[in-house]
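Re: duplicated header lines in exported structure tokens

Our pipeline writes sequence and tokens for each protein into one text file. With two proteins the header for the second block appears twice in some exports. Here is an export where it did not happen, for reference. First protein block:
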Amino acid sequence: MKQFLLTSMLMALCYSLHAQNNIRDGRHIFNYDITLTPCNFDGSTIAGATPERIEANTIFVVKNIVSTYYIIQISKFTSNNPTATTLNARLVTTLLGNDIFFKLPQRGSNDSYELNAERLEKKGLFTVGAATTLIKIRPGRKEPKDGHNIYSEFGNDFNIGISAGWKFKPYRRQQLSHSLVGGLSFSSIKVTPYTTKDFVQSESTQGCVTFSAGYVFEYNKFQVSLFSGLDVMSGEIGRQWIYRNRPWLGLGFGFQIFRGQGETTN
């Protein structure tokens, strides 16, 4: 069961990493005005094409990747006013019904995407990621009924898992967000004669499943989290473990590897 759980988590993380790296998934938005030159779908030059000015807050998708360029297409402007009609004819589709594409540099100091655009997201969205709890604090207990003292413990057990929840991003152009998430992970915990009421005779490690919930502050994809959770250890060792059914408090760090995508129109 433990091996199956760990394998499933690793497969999910690998899949999510692949999904996040595909820039052709989802839509993007320009944060600033930019001037780009129309081109063909394969990136080749169109004879006589003149650069077009594209205003900030214009939404686009990446249709192709050629050498050092993203080949992008502007999303259709949905307003019924004459301005939208003019922009659609100039930036989206020609009068003959042909799609219009633009070349957007993607590498080096002239990386126009990094300088001028970002992935489009809603302010609130479902998110999934990977995290590890760096420090666990297990509170002690005074005057135990069974006569076995339980002292507070600071642990740094190995653990890896996945978490999911709701993320809120207050400002689109700032890489800052807040999340409330729940998680499931696999942990390897040190047990001793003391923590198992002398059931084990020497120090060893025991695997367990961990359920957790908490708050995550994220800046530029790096996360700091405050969590509370419960470690579920199986077998007789788990039944004798003095921290059984006792929640812990945790401090964690992580790196978000994929996230939900919003759907907004121009």
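Second protein block, exported in the same file:
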Amino acid sequence: MPVTPGSQKYQGESGRTRATDRAARRFAALPADFTFTVDVEEHGTPGRAAPATRRLLDLLDAAGARGTFFVLDAMVRQDPALVREVARRGHEVACHGYDHRPLADQGPATFRTGTLAARDRMADLLGAPPAGFRAPYFSLTPDAAWAPAILAEAGFAYSSSLLPAWSPLAGWPGAPRRPFLWPGGVLELPVPVGRVGPLLLPFLGGMYLRWLPPWRLSTLVRSWVAENGGGHLWSYCHPYDVDPGEGLVRRADAGLVGSVMLWLNRGPTVPRLEGLLRGRRSEPFATYLPALRAAATVWHPEPATGSLRAATVG
């Protein structure tokens, strides 16, 4: 069948609309209120994060949604205009740290120095220090149990840094799945997870949102609704998740297989994010903090009896 001139774009837009409609149906059972979050960092090809971040800003504008953008200090230094634009367009700007390495690899002294520098640079740029922090790779693990005390010293109100499950990525099995308070007073917002057999997966973000087949996403939504005992729903993504034109980046922290997984299958990201936003109200974490803090209790983790660290990708 011949294709009429100009129809390719229409067919592409129509296909994306159908994919968004299907995603919206799969996510329909999730709560109406949530937070859309972005980890703003370069994936490896300099200069690509800024235009991809603006695609995400446009996606949120189209949905009438606001979110929280965790910005790595390197991006604050590299493109302060982008950070100011995120704030100007109504979103919360939070800290993704100074160095994109797992917390345990940084160690307490390096983490303290770098985090204070990143906080101060963001405060100088935007006129106020960030309230929130997210560790690279969600690497708040038993091996980095010292980090919340440093965040409290630095004046952060909350952290969004912990995966409350075993994972081939960084995780803290046995940690609460509801928002909770660290002994120093920092509110922790654990990654929402859904169950697949014995595993708990952070299905609303990153590689998981891109790679999980539609039927599995539907199952995870049902399991989250059935098993979640409370807590605030949120999603996460990166600029590279919506950048299908980027070539393969060989990342030393991911290995060849991990690098390929981070590169391929980026096409489904936008319609799935659009489907997640449809019919749902996204507000920054800062909007929900008073209610979340009022409902949270203090968690005193047991001392680690051994290393739970794992290889991290994504």
